[in-house]
Amino acid sequence: ILNTYQRFAAPAFVPVLLNVVLITFAAFIAPYFERPGIALAVGVFTAGAVQLLFLLPFLARLRVLPRPRWGATHTGVRKISRLMLPAIFGSSVAQINILFDTLIASFLVTGSISWLYYSDRLMEFPLGVFGIALATVILPNLSRQHAAQSHEQFSAMVDWAVRLAILIALPATLGLCLLAGPLLATIFYGGQFGAGDVAMATPSLMAYAFGLTGFILVKVLAPGFFARQDTVTPVRIGIIALIVNMGLNVAIVVPWVQAGWPAPHAGLAVATAGSAFLNAALLGRELWRQQVWVPRVGWGRYLLQVAAACGVMSMLLASFVPPITAWLEVDVWTRCLWMAAAVVGGTAAYAASLLAVGLRPRYFSL
Questions:
Q1: 204 with 269: CB under 8 angstroms?
Q2: ∠ CA 156-159-163 to the nearest 5 degrees?
Q3: Beta partners for 193?
Q4: How many CB atoms lie within 10 A of CB 117?
Q5: Which residues have a Cβ under 8 Å from the Cβ of 15 and sit 6 or more positions away?
């Protein structure tokens, strides 16, 4: 509701409350439970209540605070119910693929599920921060333009979102690939997560990172259908991507295991990344076929500019980031300092390179 009124700050802050409540329960409440895991479960429930209570004043200020009442037979409720389930499936194909990856990983060497999980968590960070944020912003705007039958503005909004997604996703992909080992060492290394775990989780993180652009594009392109109340097409395409992912899992992992190559779980991540690109490509092609999204002039030049900036950033990171052996030999604070320097330096190099090749902020104005 708040997003439809262009109020994005409060909903964006809500996940912070979830983390604060969970940390509070883990640090201060769990010791009083015989089974600490129960405390975290209670913490999740409590966090949901806190999030809801936090948002209510913002709704009241807009005079749109909903009053609970039974309305299952209402025309609008029935319409939303009919559209909601396909929409949920269409935007959750990546998560379903990862769940299927986890199932297959359970038949591989011990530790495969954990290595995939840690890799997925790090890949989900830029996806959640940028991909979901973009989707959240454009969906209400696309819905408004569709209702006003502003087809040119609708197409321009989709084009803007895709360009911005690529601007963010490509350097994030390269950064995750080049910093996969150091990032895993910085965040997880220590205790039960040893050097061998870092080595095994690195290829799966690189594989997931390869698909990050596809994952983000799916999040950005799917609202182009949802805003027009077309929830069937994303589901149909999502099913195709899901079937392809299952086939790729078998086609990649079985020969990988038979050949005796290390880290066969990385093949599962490769399959998921490939299906994400297929999903995004089919969504984009369908929007183009329906003339809902007509790419604006200048795409070729834009891609060359972004590629050049990514190349400069990659060369900088590859030249100055220490090898993984060095990361494992220093203390956690040094690793954090090195990682901060790598992220800041890479981001600065990317931004400066974009300016050097002629890309300006006004290029992204609608």
A1: yes
A2: 140
A3: 190
A4: 15
A5: none
Spatial neighbors of 80 by CB under 8 A, at least 6 apart, are none
> E strand or H helix at 344, and its extent?
helix 332-356
Give the C-alpha separation, 219 to 235, whole Å: 13
Q: What is the per-residue pLDDT across 26-57, written as a single tens digit (0 to 9) for each?
A: 888 888 888 888 988 999 999 999 999 999 98
Q: 30 vs 22, 26, 34, 35, 192, CA distance in Å?
A: 10, 5, 8, 8, 21
Amino acid at 172: A
- The Cα-based distances of 144 to 27, 61, 63 in angstroms read 45, 22, 20
**How many CB atoms lie under 10 A from the CB of residue 45?**
10
Rg (CA), the chain: 22
196-229 pLDDT, tens digit per residue, is 999 999 999 999 999 999 999 998 998 899 888 8
Strand-pairing partners, residue 190, are: 193
Lowest-pLDDT choice from 73-82, 123-132, 273-282:
73-82
- Determine which helix (DSSP H) or strand (DSSP E) holds 297, and give its type and residue range: none
Alpha-carbon gap, residue 358 to 205, rounded angstroms: 32
Residue labelled with tokens 């609708």 = 154
Token pair for 17: 């409350």
SS3 191: coil
pTM of the model: 0.83
